[in-house]
């Protein structure tokens, strides 16, 4: 389904209807993982990534990189690729709903992969297509509003992209069944309808690239002499 209006990321969660509830739910899912993230550099890519706190995170230096320097409206992330950092510069990368507001989500993942070190952490969240958000997107009086008109990806599609990039999936789940709500009822519904959460969170690690074997220019000599069959000992 085509977007009703130009794709742009909100500068803060509060600009989304119920955005504070989305933020609280996502921060609760991320909280157990921050103490496990190690390294020196963490990239928070996108305006919504910037607003997330990282309690217990052991990474001392956090770099915030917005999708756009325009304070009025965030332009698609592809307009700012590649990022001005060398290869393997960051130990972790947080993409909080960044794919949902990108016109080129797979290229954005490729750029994040370039920036991550071997065994680097990728923390990826977004709005899930198989949820109430996906249903509301098809309603004419709802689909024109945030966040229904942004990119809603099926979780399996995002996992396929990470498989192509050779990432190990450490954690994957959907959560928050009712959009824009963080009530007790939402927590109860998650136990019964877990695959239908309107948000997803994926924790993945970049695999170490194996060294390619170098073919020998000259064949190695045989360890034992090759004796022809039928020749006597005196020959």
Topology overview:
Blueprint: H1 19-30, E1 41-45, H2 47-50, E2 61-65, E3 90-96, H3 105-115, E4 116-127, H4 132-137, H5 155-164, E5 167-175, H6 184-192, E6 199-206
Parallel strand pairs: 1-2, 1-3, 3-4
Antiparallel strand pairs: 4-6, 5-6
Which runs of at least 5 residues are low in confidence (pLDDT < 50)?
71-78
Rg over CA atoms, rounded to whole Å, is 24 Å
Report on the biggest sheet. Answer: 6 strands, mixed
Would you report the number of β strands?
A: 6
The H-and-E topology, N to C, reads as: HEHEEHEHHEHE
Averaging pLDDT over every residue, what do you get? 80
Strand content: 15-25%
Strand order of the largest sheet: 2-1-3-4-6-5
Shape: globular
Distance between the termini: 83 Å
Number of distinct helices: 6
Structural class: alpha/beta
Q: What is the helical fraction, as a range of percent?
A: 10-25%
Report on this model:
The protein is an alpha/beta fold and 235 residues long. The chain contains 6 helices and 6 strands. Helix 2 links the parallel strand 1 (41-45) and strand 2. Mean pLDDT is 80; it is low at 71-78.
Structure described in brief:
With 235 residues, this protein is of the alpha/beta class.
Features:
single chain; alpha/beta; 6 strands; six-stranded mixed beta sheet
